[in-house]
Amino acid sequence: MNDAAPGAASPGQTLDASALERLYAYPDRPWLRANMVASLDGAAAGNDGRTEALNTPADLVVFTLLRDLADVVLVGAGTAREAGYRRTGPRTGDRAARAVAEGRADRPEIAVVSGSGRVPPLLAEPAGEGGGVLLVTCGAAGNEALDRARRTLGEDRVLVCGRERVDLRAAVGALVRRGLPRILCEGGPRLLADVAAAGLLDEMCLTVVPLMAGGVQQRVAVGTAADAPLVPGVLIESEGTLLQRWLRPPS
């Protein structure tokens, strides 16, 4: 891992895969980054309600890279259900071998946040060759839901963090203790707002696509009020798509 500052690149430089990876490298400490996509007018989905309507080739490249670099993908249960999340496949290129050499898994895990303790159906399917799934929940889910989740995922793969609601700070600590310090939050918007409000957001990766959406789609973060100042780190343009990396200011 590198320090918190992004790798160097020059204005107008064409980036190959190695240069792009350097620009998005994790620092050498626990780090929570979020990755979201938005239209020019701030919509978090197209007018069909799907984020896929906003995806571009450049966005897909960075989406894949950020997953490859992460130890665990943090996602809300509602988003996981709506987007059809499945267990992760192996990292691409030589990143799988590099991860294993560093003592990490050859594919990231998924940590799904659910206050009700329900595992999204596609993530409840048998592991096969896919990555692991963790459930992040709270005591209010109740013993019946917790026992069902443990039978589905395994006794040690249900993290009870908080009593009445999920304590995200405790959840992040639990993930780090499991050897998963590189955390990638993929939302949805309510989880992202909660993460930012809890002071846990180290970095925001935002793809802005060249599209005005209009309509009534929600923003990339909604719900809990958050005042999380960030400073610009990286700005990349590819065929009108803007790829941005915003960092927590130095303390």
UniProtKB/TrEMBL annotation:
Gene3D superfamilies: Dihydrofolate Reductase, subunit A. Pathway: Cofactor biosynthesis; riboflavin biosynthesis. Residues 30-224 form the Bacterial bifunctional deaminase-reductase C-terminal domain. InterPro entries: DHFR-like_dom_sf, RibDG_C, Riboflavin_Biosynth_HTPR. GO terms for molecular function: 5-amino-6-(5-phosphoribosylamino)uracil reductase activity. It comes from the Bacteria. The keyword Manganese does not apply. The keyword NADP applies. It holds the Pfam family RibD_C. GO terms for biological process: riboflavin biosynthetic process. Keywords: NADP, Oxidoreductase. This is Bifunctional deaminase-reductase domain protein.
